Amino acid sequence: MNKVYSNLGKLVTVDFLLNKWLEWTELSLLCEEALDFSKMTVLNKQYHYFKPQGETCVWLLSESHMAVHTYPENKFFALDVFTCGEEANPNKVVQHFIKNLDIRYYNVNNIMRGIQT
Amino acid sequence: MNKVYSNLGKLVTVDFLLNKWLEWTELSLLCEEALDFSKMTVLNKQYHYFKPQGETCVWLLSESHMAVHTYPENKFFALDVFTCGEEANPNKVVQHFIKNLDIRYYNVNNIMRGIQT
After folding, report:
1. Dihedrals φ, ψ of A38, to 5°?
2. DSSP SS3 for A75
3. Chain A residue nearest residue B51, CA to CA
4. Which terminus of chain A has a smaller tally of CB atoms within 10 A, N or C?
């Protein structure tokens, strides 16, 4: 059976292991810059700090959403960028992070979202 | 080189194509039920309605986040469930959706998040 994939959304996930950890004030700023750089429109934002450490932040975008989960004890954070529509490019967001972080290791996963019939 | 994967998070993505579309009031209720069923703790929620159709909703959880993006014109929605920690099981959320929807097709993708060294 031939499969036709209708691309309705794009999800990019990135695992970042850093050499130099950024505190949330800095990482948060980088997130906002990355969204601005890639011309995403922020509609809303939710942030939560987990004791004793760790942050979750989710941005609701016109283009869909971005989520960051930090694990400061591991110098690690997980980034998810989901976009709908042809124009939005989640990899532009990712590029901005890669360019501006002191990275030991990172892993990018592109997942096309849609209907397979 | 041997690779050691430290599992810091679990992301499950699901693409749902339905036979019978659910309006947001119903789908939203199912989302809440799925979170309750799988013992997730909701800290906050953001919702946005896109004209002329389509919804985005992101739940900030103690366990991380859940996001839903709907495409009513395609009877399609995308579900993402991200959890941290050993106990939380994002696939329990997914099971609740599968059990309670009239599905034409669905596709599940499990993505382990963490450090590969």
Report:
1. -95, 15
2. coil
3. A62
4. N
| pLDDT tens column, B92-107 | 999 999 999 999 999 9
Q: Which two tokens stand for residue A92?
A: 């532009």
Cα B42 to Cα A56: distance, rounded to the nearest angstrom: 13
What was the ipTM of the complex prediction?
0.93
User: Distance between CA A40 and CA A65 in Å, rounded?
Assistant: 10
Q: Is the dihedral of CA B9, B10, B15, B21 positive or negative?
A: negative
The torsion angles phi and psi of A51, rounded to 5 degrees, stand at -75, 140
The residues pairing with B45 across neighbouring beta strands, listed in sequence order, are B59
CA–CA min distance B72, chain A (Å)? 12
pLDDT per position as a tens digit, A73-113: 999 999 999 999 888 999 999 999 999 999 999 999 999 99
Nearest to B34 by CA among B103, B75, B105, B92: B92
Q: Which helix (H) or strand (E) holds B28?
A: helix B24-37
Min CA distance, A16 vs chain B (Å)? 8
Three-state secondary-structure class, residue A27: helix
* CB nearest A115 (choices: B64, B76, B116): B76
Measured CA angle at B66 (ends A79, B3), to 5 deg: 45
Task: Mark whether A38 is an active-site residue.
Answer: no
Q: Which of B6, B8, B44 to mutate to test the interface with A (most CBs of A within 10 A)?
A: B8
Token pair 């959320």 is found at B93
Whether the CB of A113 is below 8 Å from some CB of chain B: the reply is yes
Beta carbons of A64 and A82 less than 8 angstroms apart: yes
Q: Comparing C-alpha atoms, which of A67, A70, A33 is closest to residue B68? A: A67
